[in-house]
Amino acid sequence: MQYFQAVKIGKERASKAQMILFDLAGFAMLTLTTKKKDGKFLPVGEKVYVAVIHTADGYVTILVDEDGYTKAQSKVLEKNEAMKIFKKAIDSGILEYSGKQIEIWTESYPVVQNEN
């Protein structure tokens, strides 16, 4: 797949995720539209999963594809607020991301929704 095709398809998929998260959180930013696997650019996946990560600035609820590449994110929140959005997503039928790491921009973060 050509890079520009991957961007176009990925933007459509990430935009859908952004609108879902906007409905749940009242705010959502588009993040990644492509991912690189085996040296090739691919669009982010079609499936949508939810997770919470802890960044240097605070907690973020995110929607990711099956490989943990972020498609949309909330603004930085307190943990309890991020978890409320996470629960809303689960209650709406979005599955929890089962992986341990999330890829966002050039960083990798562990998921934290199951921390005590």
Q: Which structural category do the helix and sheet elements fall into?
A: alpha+beta
> What kind of sheet is the major sheet?
5 strands, mixed
**How many separate domains make up the residues?**
1
User: What is the CA-atom radius of gyration, in angstroms?
Assistant: 13 Å
Characterize the quaternary organization of these chains. single chain
Q: How many distinct helices?
A: 2
Main-sheet strand order equals: 1-6-5-4-7
Overall geometry comes to globular
> pLDDT below 50 for ≥5 consecutive residues: which ranges?
none
Order of helices and strands: HEEEEEEHEEE
State the total count of DSSP E strands. Answer: 9
Overall pLDDT metric: 94
**% residues in beta strands:** 25-35%
How much helicity do the residues have? Answer: 25-40%
What's the end-to-end separation, in Å?
Answer: 42 Å
